Amino acid sequence: MIFACRGSAGMPFIRVPDATESDIQKATDIGAIGVIVPTVDTVEKAEAAVKWTKYPPFGRRSQGGGQYRELWGNDYRQTANDNMMVVIMIETPEGVANAEKIAAVPGIDVIFAASTDLGNFSGHKQGEPAYEALVTRIKDATLARGLKLGGPLAWKDRPGFSFFQAPGETVLINAGAQVILKNAPAPATR
Fold this sequence. Notes:
- By secondary structure, the protein is of the alpha/beta class.
- It has nine helices and six strands.
- The model has no long low-confidence stretch (mean pLDDT 90).
């Protein structure tokens, strides 16, 4: 799927399990140009995400091997440092409490307010004042630093949000199939 992005406007992102060298290196070696890091509760985890996605002097990513050169060319090292997007997901009350400090970490491009897990970890539901206060704190911290604010596609009309999570691949495949079937010529009759 990542190789299919070659020569297109599509930029491949991978949501890694954690902000570790191993997890991020695997994603970047196969050509991801965006890394999404879940459950970022601390400045240290946000810093680790940046550290392992960027080559020196901005980070500590090793040269590694993989298909990235075939996708992005021989100047991939500079391409990665210039274009790698680091997306941090804030999903817990602890992460929200540290939102201002997390947003201040150099090298972060997007902070994603993880709607479902904010409810999961806080015990509050979307629309409740306590839940909305969590989202507002993430929003304010993110926008104050000039970063992009992410959330689910359902939040596309919320002010300040400009980076969205699309539906999963099964929904997208189904939607594409429906379009193809709707536009297919009628079967020939005998």
